[in-house]
Amino acid sequence: MVALGYFVVAEDVRAVLRYAVPGADVRGEPGGGGFGGGGLSFYGSAVAADDKIYIPSRTSGVFVLAADSEFKLLACNKFEGDESRFDGTPAISDGAIFLRSNEYLYCIGLK
Asked: I need a surface site. Which of 2, 11, 41, 58 has the fewest CB within 10 A?
């Protein structure tokens, strides 16, 4: 994915989060697909909108980064009560982001 002229891939996210998020349990090797081992694993692709990069992890929430030349973690959002995996890539349409877990489909946006 390219955001503001920067190329972002899950392997880069894993490396950045390893150093930038205190206590982050980032496991897996580049190109490993995020299977097994627990910790932060990524399966869906990152998407960008509104100068932000949204990166869904399988079980640790959706990381929101500023699409900027400097690393800035804006948020990490989890859906309480949904302990299933998030294996899909988010979709963005008409100002809303759609996220799919193995149990539910979420639409987040302004009414």
From this structure: 2
- How far is 94 from 91, CA to CA, in rounded Å? 10
C-alpha span between 89 and 86 (Å, rounded) = 8
**Nearest Cα to 63, choosing from 13, 109, 6, 9?**
13
Task: Give the tens place of pLDDT for each residue, 96-110.
Answer: 999 999 999 999 998
CA distance 56 to 25: 15
Global confidence as pTM? 0.71
DSSP 31-79: TSTT-SSSSB-B-SPPEEETTEEEEEBSSS-EEEEESSSS--EEEEE--
